[in-house]
Design a protein that fits this description.
heterodimer, A: mainly beta, seven-stranded mixed sheet, about 0% helix, about 50% strand, B: mainly beta
Chain lengths: ~120, ~110
């Protein structure tokens, strides 16, 4: 059974760096083709893909946010970490991590999401 | 970037209705399209991948079709559990992009 859970601060100040951790079980990021992605959703708005890391450490980023994002994995801990620098109130959103089964990049298992508010 | 445009943004329907949601891509994505259902306060759930393949456990009243730039999600005989938001997502190329969503409301 695949599960994922996001953790991190619920409130950050403008200009601060956000660090979110996705802890998962039921699969290994050492398995060929598997990936973990991050997707966010501002309140009442649509989904926005942020980043994706694959089993072989291939990393993909949203071009509009690439300069602010870093995604890393710790295979031994079953964790993926996303950092986003220079946070702004427009970054207020629910942040989800999700499993990508490979052979394309859909997301078949999602975490419950974590709401991050950016405010001074 | 490939832009994904969904229509309508809101749809009012009754239990038992047949519902169709459209997703248009700004350029061809072949068949690399997925559909998700999202209920209020919950994470999205994958319904359909590669345009028409049903994810395991998804009721057969859901179906998808299309290719290239135009795609549809159809729900036959809408059930109370189907009132939710629906999103399309292309995975033909990076960056991965989602549509703006369609909210299916009770009429």
């Amino acid at each position: 059974q695949i599960t994922l859970k996001e953790s991190g601060p619920t409130l950050v100040k403008p200009t601060q760096t956000l660090t979110l951790t996705c802890t998962f079980s039921g699969f290994s990021l050492g398995t060929s083709a598997v990936g973990v992605g991050w997707i966010r959703q501002p309140p009442g708005k649509a989904l926005e893909w942020l980043a994706l890391i694959y089993w072989d450490d291939d990393k993909r980023y949203s071009p509009s946010l690439k300069t602010r994002l870093t995604i890393t994995k710790d295979t031994s801990k079953n964790q993926v970490v996303l950092t986003m620098t220079n946070m702004d109130p427009v970054d207020t959103a629910t942040y989800y991590c999700a499993h990508s089964p490979g052979a394309g990049t859909t997301f078949d298992y999602w975490g419950q999401g974590t709401l991050v508010t950016v405010s001074s | 970037d490939i832009q994904m445009t969904q229509s309508p943004s809101t749809l009012s329907a009754s239990v038992g209705d047949r519902v169709t949601i459209t997703c248009r891509a700004s350029q061809s994505i072949s068949s690399w399209l997925a559909w998700y259902q999202q209920k209020a306060g919950k994470a999205p759930k994958l319904l359909i991948y590669k345009t028409s393949s049903l994810e395991g456990g998804v009721p057969s009243r859901f179906s998808g079709s299309g290719s290239g730039t135009e795609f549809t999600l159809t729900i036959n005989s809408l059930q109370p559990d189907d009132f939710a938001a629906y999103y399309c997502q292309q995975y033909n190329s990076y960056p991965l992009t989602f549509g703006g969503g369609t909210k299916v409301e009770i009429k």
